[in-house]
């Protein structure tokens, strides 16, 4: 598999227009001056600090850490979706931050392999933090060579949210659990001017839902093979694509879903313009109270012959981890203090209680102030779990799969063309 983070890939990332466009995204400093050679200053690069869910809790945690460690300064760099690009640019100049907080997906899949970040397995054991991590989370952050890419932190449940009040208004008596029931519900909702399932068909939210629906007829091993290799020609994959196309052409998804984004999706659901959405924990936490009180969470409806015995949801433990950079190894004592603090049960509990975050660490705390997040945490055996493909998709195929997703959500696109679009996404990988 070709990695975009080879030396050649790094040079391409850090040159010309790419560098010019990513540098302004930093909060308070440029990517190339992000690192601080002062051994008493820890530089952390994160997506938390502005409007991202959990930001207030994170900033408060930084304040507590500073007070508990008065001799250690913390410089907090903030980026949004361009964090990985900005980090790569700073790494090219050997001025990267010491710790990076980001998910395991797309570009970051290759970081440890090319030395952009370091294997943290030894640190996890030496600092006695392994037992704080849920076993499934540790497995997801461990690569094929046994290296642990980062310290796991945020996780997420990803159920289906159903606006019970809108379903009642349309005369839908029960939450749909089969494809036929979902199609019937969609027809009734449309008759009342309500969009059925809203989805970001033009971004990652649509890509995840498409993968979930395709897995209706795939075992976990079969799904892992399909998303690792780009081979969607198995009987189960073809049946899953057929099922998706049937639902799409029956009007299950919101109009022009192929052009919608995650922001559009959450807006439609939160304003009650749509009745159903596939919502990860951070989206569930943002559902307004007046909508949340008549919203239920469950799984995606199945159809005859499904390999699952219950409606499906997605779960992942790779939403955010603490990656250690080569520069960070030069300040490893400071990094250890920071990670021990962030792994403390009281710090973890505050993210759960104050921000409605699911965690990859052991905790008995529930998101009681975020009822939908708590409800998703309690689903347990009432649903079946589909495979989140993020850690299996080759980095070079990640963005082409978004394009394939938009094609797939375009009504009238045949099952054969959907399969071809998915497989074409892998040709550059």
From TrEMBL:
It comes from the Bacteria. Gene3D superfamilies: Periplasmic binding protein-like II. Transmembrane segments: none annotated. The lineage of its organism: Bacteria, Bacillati, Actinomycetota, Actinomycetes, Kitasatosporales. InterPro entries: Bact_solute-bd_prot1, SBP, TAT_signal. Coiled coil: none annotated. This is ABC transporter substrate-binding protein.
């Amino acid at each position: 598999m070709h990695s975009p983070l080879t030396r050649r890939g790094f040079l391409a990332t850090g040159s010309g227009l790419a560098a010019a466009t990513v540098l302004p995204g930093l909060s308070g400093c440029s990517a190339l001056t992000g690192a601080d050679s002062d051994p008493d200053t820890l530089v952390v690069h994160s997506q938390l600090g502005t409007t991202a869910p959990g930001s207030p809790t994170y900033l408060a945690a930084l304040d507590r850490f500073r007070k508990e460690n008065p001799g250690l300064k913390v410089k907090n760099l903030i980026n949004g979706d361009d964090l990985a690009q900005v980090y790569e640019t700073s790494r090219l100049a050997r001025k990267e931050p010491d710790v990076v907080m980001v998910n395991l997906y797309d570009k970051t899949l290759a970081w440890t392999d090319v030395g952009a970040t370091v294997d943290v397995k030894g640190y996890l054991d030496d600092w006695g933090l392994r037992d704080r991590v849920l076993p499934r989370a540790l497995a997801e952050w461990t690569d094929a060579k046994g290296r642990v890419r980062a310290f796991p932190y945020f996780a997420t449940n990803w159920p289906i949210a159903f606006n019970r009040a809108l379903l009642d208004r349309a005369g839908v008596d029960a939450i749909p659990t089969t494809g036929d029931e979902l199609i019937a519900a969609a027809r009734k909702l449309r008759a009342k001017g309500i969009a059925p399932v809203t989805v970001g068909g033009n971004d990652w939210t649509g890509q995840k839902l498409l993968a979930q629906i395709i897995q209706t007829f795939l075992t976990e091993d079969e799904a892992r093979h399909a998303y690792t290799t780009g081979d969607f020609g198995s009987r189960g994959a073809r049946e899953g694509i057929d099922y998706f196309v049937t639902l799409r052409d029956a009007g299950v998804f919101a109009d022009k879903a192929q052009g919608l984004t995650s922001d559009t999706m959450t807006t439609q659901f939160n304003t009650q313009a749509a009745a159903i959405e596939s919502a990860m924990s951070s989206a569930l936490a943002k559902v307004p109270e007046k909508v949340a009180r008549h919203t239920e969470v469950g799984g995606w409806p199945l159809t005859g012959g499904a390999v699952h015995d219950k409606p499906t949801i997605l779960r992942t433990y790779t939403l955010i981890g603490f990656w250690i950079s080569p520069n960070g190894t030069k300040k490893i004592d400071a990094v250890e203090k920071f990670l021990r603090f962030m792994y403390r049960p009281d710090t973890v509990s505050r993210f759960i209680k104050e921000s409605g975050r699911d965690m990859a660490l052991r905790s008995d705390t529930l998101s009681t102030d975020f009822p939908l997040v708590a409800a998703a945490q309690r689903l347990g055996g009432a649903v079946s779990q589909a495979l989140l493909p993020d850690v299996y998709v080759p980095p070079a195929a990640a963005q082409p799969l978004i394009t394939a997703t938009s094609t797939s959500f375009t009504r009238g696109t045949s099952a054969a063309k959907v399969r071809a679009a998915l497989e074409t996404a892998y040709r550059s990988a």
